[in-house]
Every structure is written in C-alpha cells, then in structure tokens.
Specification:
Elements: E1 2-6, H1 23-36, E2 41-45, H2 55-66, E3 72-75, H3 82-88, E4 103-107, E5 110-114, H4 124-134, E6 141-144, H5 155-160, H6 166-173, E7 181-185, E8 192-196, E9 199-203, E10 210-211, E11 220-222, E12 226-232, E13 238-244
Parallel strand pairs: 1-2, 2-3, 5-6, 6-7, 7-9
Antiparallel strand pairs: 1-12, 4-5, 8-9, 10-11, 12-13
Helix pairs in contact: 4-6
C-alpha cells in the first residue's frame, strides 16, 4: 500500500501575496507528482490555509484534490479552523463530541489514527480516545497529526511554536511499548526524524518553503516543495522517503 503525505500547503486567496511563492502552483505540481506515483491513499496533515481559515480556499483545495479520484483524509493545523474544514470537506462525522477532528481509518488492511492539534495542544479528550485505540495494537501503529510530539532540534520552531503539552501525548504513547508507534506530522517546515524508545516521529517538509533548522531566528533554507511517500507491505515491511520537487528559478 502506498500513502502520500502532503502538509503545510498554506493556500492563500487567489492573488494574495504569500512571500512571493506561488503556493497554488506548488500545490498543483505536488498533486500532479502524487498522481504520477500512483498512491492508494493521500493524507493532508494540516495548515491548508495560508494564515487564517477561509471557506473559499478550502473549497478550491477540495476541488483540486478530488480531481485525482483517490481516497484521502485531512486534519487541521494551527492555521486552520476545524469546524469550517469539516463543513467544507463533509467531515462532520469525524468530529469528537467536543468538535475536534480525531478519527480512525482502516484501509488496505492497515489502521491509521488521526489527531487534531490545531489549537496547539492535544486535549485530554483526544488523549483518552488515543489511549483506548492503542490498547488494541497488534503491530506497529501509524498516527498522523500536525504538530510533532517531540522536540526536533529546530531552534526557531522548538522555542516558539512547539506542541504546548507534549507530555499528554507522551504519557499515552509510552504506556504501550509492545509495538512501535510512528507519528507522521508537519508544522516545522523541515525534513527530520526523531526517536524516543518505541516512538518514532517523522516531520514531513512543506510544499511552501523549508525553514533553516539550525538558526535561532527565522530563516529559509530552500524553496523546494516536499512530500513524503510511505510504502507498507502485508508482511510488515515498511519504508518511507521524502520526495522534493525542483522549482524553476530556485
């Protein structure tokens, strides 16, 4: 089974200045590349909107995604609005009673869990929901969320925009050590992997720009849009890699 994760697309209004980057063009190019790679499933892991949630942008994004006629899921990031996203993408049935978008997806014999950290925290309600599902682990578990639940050694993001309560996630995750847990996220605009015991966190780069991962202040490393390709096999094999797209002029 092949999954493609695309994250932090930051789509603005048509004609809106987005750091002189053609975010819509980047997104369309990544969708074209994704289709060429023949995935079984697409995951869009947050920050669909540039700065603030916008129904028009969500509608445009949905229209472009659904032209591929592939199964897909979305979760919100800190620049999204969960309720509005759920409404535009017809995902209200995936909301928990408190309005957060946390859900389970079974596909191709595999189970995936999705969490909502759009407020910058993981709520106790989601932690309880996650704990109940992790109790049923029979092999490695794959989780998609927007914020990394571990510090990543990216000074600018770690100091200013981390998940505000990682201990809530870690308390749940560390209670289940029989099988590895792989978290695929975004938010940091870098490519990085962190390991802590049986927990493995993989940050996927943005389709917008990539942040310099060594500077204390904000700096852009490069403008090559990226995505992650995951290949899962029935015998337990599992591999993944980041694919970058070259952009003319950069």
């Amino acid at each position: 089974m092949r999954i493609i994760q695309i994250t932090d697309i930051h789509i603005g209004e048509e004609g809106e200045v987005t750091r002189d980057v053609d975010v819509r063009g980047n997104f369309m190019d990544m969708l074209h590349l994704a289709g060429h790679l023949q995935p079984d499933y697409l995951v869009f892991s947050g920050d669909l909107c540039y700065s603030t949630a916008n129904a028009n942008n969500y509608r445009w994004i949905r229209e472009q995604i659904e032209r591929l006629t592939l199964p897909y899921d979305i979760i919100p990031g800190n620049h999204d609005e969960t309720a509005l996203m759920a409404q535009v993408f017809d995902r209200n049935h995936l909301l928990l009673p408190g309005g957060e978008m946390a859900f389970e997806r079974n596909m191709g014999g595999f189970r995936f869990l999705f969490l909502d950290t759009s407020t910058g925290v993981l709520s106790q309600a989601q932690a309880d929901w996650l704990a109940a599902r992790l109790q049923t682990i029979t092999r490695r578990q794959i989780i998609f969320m927007h914020h990394p639940p571990l510090k990543a050694g990216v000074p600018f993001m770690d100091s200013r925009y981390p998940l505000q309560n990682p201990e809530v996630f870690l308390h749940v995750a560390t209670a289940y050590t029989k099988h590895p847990i792989h978290v695929f996220c975004g938010h940091y605009h870098v490519e990085k992997t962190m390991h802590s015991g049986h927990l493995h966190v993989h940050i996927t780069p943005s389709t917008f720009f990539q942040i310099d991962g060594f500077r204390e202040d904000f700096g852009i490393d490069h403008y090559r849009p990226g995505m992650r390709v995951l290949d899962l096999s029935d015998d337990g094999g599992f591999m993944h890699a980041v694919k970058y797209l070259d952009v003319a002029g950069w």
